[in-house]
Amino acid sequence: MKENLYNFILGIADNSLILGQRMGELCGHGPSLETDIACTNISLDLFGQVRSYFQYAAKIAGDGRTEDDIAMLRKEREYKNVLLVEQPNIDFAFTLGRQFLFDVYHLAFLSELQKSTDLTLSAIANKCIKEVSYHERFSSDWVRRLGDGTNESNQKIQEAINSLWTYTDELFHQTKADIAMVEQGIGVDVTKLKESYYMQVGQLLEEATLEIPESKWFQKGGKEGVHTEHLGYLLSDLQYMQRTYPNMEW
Amino acid sequence: MSEEQIKNLEEQFEARIARDEKIEPKDWMPEKYRKTHIRQMSQHAHSEIVGMLPEGNWITRAPSLRRKVALLAKVQDEAGHGLYLYSATETLGISRDEMYEQLHSGKAKYSSIFNYPTITWADMGAIGWLVDGAAIINQVPLCNTSYGPYARAMIRVCKEESFHQRQGFEIMMKLANGTPEQKDMAQDALNRWWWPSLMMLGPTDDVSVHTAQSMKWKLKRKSNDDLRQQFIDQTVPQAELIGLTIPDADLKWNETRGSYDFGEIDWDEFWQVVKGHGPMNKERMKARVGAWERGEWVRDAAMAHAEKKQERKQKQAG
């Protein structure tokens, strides 16, 4: 098995899986029908992407595991998503703030992945980028609206951004598999995305009359499978059926 | 306007409906027609929105990625139906906020079926197969109803509902052909959803208050009892096909009628749920009202932002 490629794909797909799961929790509970539809739609897009990645990962693994086995039957320490995407839906500001901080990265990442020498990955990136451009537009618009809305909304989104900021630096960390994939022309050198990420995020926050957090203390670990306490609960839901009724088809 | 003039307008109005012409928002219409349509259409929209909750309950726990994606898409369709239906109802001179207010205060109703809990994955199959199946039977005739915006909304709604029903049946089929545990899960869901689905088609004709007027305005084409019979006759062979048993000891094919005879429906249960005392009435309303209240600051922010943008634009222009 091409272990580095497999782990590289998991790193990408787990972000979409866990964020998709978080957005799916909100279905039917949004602040308006329009935002409800949009958040469900983002979740739907992300799970669609997850399927493409895991189907490919299953093929690479070649050991009979399916997309569902990979998505739902790993242990906590085997999930490689960044800490940012597993953070809970505290309120609409946290949800959209988290989405925005991820989307800006995701869009830049996919635009590089399109150039991958791995044709399957570049085709997946090509398909996903259309969806993710919409996500990025949606979440940026909302950060702008909440920042430059009422005093209350400004405070709430500022608080969300301040709390989530600590998880942004991890987006640009590289695992062993990431480095190997960059060397082979398959992966994306995320360290090169960092500067323009903070510039873009900073510009939008400014436009939204928000302050750019100054904290330089960052959390890390998700990419190595060391997560926050939130992930275990999310996985209990995600894995419930597969764990309770093993080896069945649905 | 004199009484005679109004009577004249009413006669012309009824004649248009009889000729199968569509009534459009700007046309004159009797006040009762407007009110009846607001009641029925908003109730329909509310049912779509409240109906998102029992299925939304399984999104995070769907057993496979394929099922999760399909369920998300389905619940999203329902939100979309709610959106068209609220918009169509707004053409009758009521705002969406007023309709929400009526839902939250309990003045407006929604389909009682959504006051039952979804306790296993098989409930996702049973809802699609039975609840959407019964809804289609109710709704297909509405594609030809007299009020234009409603009829047009229903054409799209029905197309998607029929897809949902097939999807629900497919979930049940897979379970029924699966392990004994899966088959039990499917049978249990059928047992719990069968009778509430029959109740969904409304009270029996002798007690239904709206039928005669609704027939005239093509809001209804068949009586509740006829629709129920149609649903039973259509669904029993489907259950047989996948090896599940309809939970009705009195269910029997009646050669003379060319239809199934069926057992007594527990109307006390029906009225209990309609009156707000079903297993999930309070939770469903709490979820809706909670989402609305928690979202208030978000809606206020969007409004404030739009106003600020407008002001800036005017300043620039001025």
Question: What can be said about this structure in brief?
Answer:
The complex is a heterodimer of chains A (250) and B (318). With 250 residues, chain A is an all-alpha fold. Helices cover 66% and strands 0% of the residues of chain A.
What report would you give on this structure?
The complex is a heterodimer of chains A (250) and B (318). Chain A has helices spanning 3-24, 33-61, 67-72, 83-86, 92-113, 119-147, 151-165, 176-183, 194-207, 230-244. Chain A is globular, with a radius of gyration of 18 Å. Helix content of chain A is 66%, strand content 0%. By secondary structure, chain A is mainly alpha-helical. Chain B is mainly alpha-helical and 318 residues long. Chain B has 13 helices and two strands. Chain B has helices at 3-18, 31-50, 52-56, 65-90, 96-105, 122-139, 148-176, 180-200, 211-216, 224-241, 267-277, 281-294, 296-317; strands at residues 252-254, 259-261. A two-stranded antiparallel ribbon of chain B has the order 1-2. In chain B, α2 (31-50) runs antiparallel to α4 (65-90) and α6 (122-139) runs antiparallel to α10. Chain B is globular. The model of chain B has no long low-confidence stretch (mean pLDDT 95). Chains A and B meet through α2, α3, α6, α7 and α10 of A and α3, α4, α7, α12 and α13 of B.
Q: What structural class should be given to the helix and strand makeup of chain A? A: mainly alpha
**Biggest sheet character of chain B:** 2 strands, antiparallel
The chain-level structural class of chain B is: mainly alpha
Distance between the termini of chain B: 46 Å
List the uncertain runs of chain B.
none
Helix content of chain B: 55-70%
Provide the β-strand percentage band of chain B: under 5%
Total E-strand runs of chain B: 2
State the end-to-end CA separation of chain A.
28 Å
Rg of chain A (C-alpha, Å) = 18 Å
